[in-house]
Known about the structure:
This protein has a ten-stranded mixed β-sheet with strand order 3-4-5-6-9-10-11-12-13-14. A two-stranded parallel sheet has the order 1-2. The chain has a two-stranded antiparallel ribbon with strand order 7-8. It folds into two domains: 58 residues, DNA polymerase, domain 1 (Orthogonal Bundle); 284 residues, Aldolase class I (TIM Barrel). Helix 10 links the parallel strand 12 and strand 13. It is an alpha/beta fold and 351 residues long. Helix content is 36%, strand content 20%. It starts with a strand and ends with a helix. It has twelve helices and 14 strands.
Amino acid sequence: xxxxxxxxxxxxxxxxxxxxxxxxxxxxxxxxxxxxxxxxxxxxxxxxxxxxxxxxxxxxxxxxxxxxxxxxxxxxxxxxxxxxxxxxxxxxxxxxxxxxxxxxxxxxxxxxxxxxxxxxxxxxxxxxxxxxxxxxxxxxxxxxxxxxxxxxxxxxxxxxxxxxxxxxxxxxxxxxxxxxxxxxxxxxxxxxxxxxxxxxxxxxxxxxxxxxxxxxxxxxxxxxxxxxxxxxxxxxxxxxxxxxxxxxxxxxxxxxxxxxxxxxxxxxxxxxxxxxxxxxxxxxxxxxxxxxxxxxxxxxxxxxxxxxxxxxxxxxxxxxxxxxxxxxxxxxxxxxxxxxxxxxxxxxxxx
Length: 351
């Protein structure tokens, strides 16, 4: 018998093809897909399917699942941080954020990360594996189910792929996730409501450009020159700014989508007036946005965030230089809402 297929990672047309190859009417694929996005994970609960078909489905497919390990709610705002245990015992985190435009979820795309960025809590425990499309989707599903117990009208409207892992390092699975989460018969989240973050994998940025998906690309920049970026982000040694910035400019030119550059301000490291001047020279003259963030003080890198006044002063320098810059509003500060810390604590306990 062929290996069972991960049902949640399949498009409806792929489900239909597998069914017809096994003597089942193709229209059943739509019924099965609808059950999945109503939260049903047990074939026996798909009650509009004949019993023999439900038994056949158990031979053809499996439905991925994981356990809700922890949920921490902020006392300051509506932010919630979730820890999930995957089927093989690995851990990932997700964050629910509330904005004026609706609810956004920050999702993980890998269990761990192999990029090694010094300021990131996700890289401290190394890389375990890529997440399958189903495992990325299930983070939305689990958060939705948890919140709907309190508010039946709750719905996720925006997705940010900025949790644990480098999305473009898990390229094929992430692209499949994007196409699945956009399906009207699924979660129906528009591409323009999805942001994908990368540390700068230039070939994959060019691949994403060719996909033609109008998502927002967010690039973790964090330094205005190669020497400083090399010391913070090992990826820069492979894809330096001379390659990254032209790829970003071309992405904007081809897609018409403004790129957001993430810039974590580290006190007396990358928040100096000289750094502001270099950043203006690097990003001036084309459509982009600089998102300034106080660095996440994870305790394992020695980096410290400056004061709010320091952030405001740096932002003002960029604006005077003609750049579009804003300071990101901090949400969930009392629960360390940036991804990585919960996984670090739980994984350390396994040892």
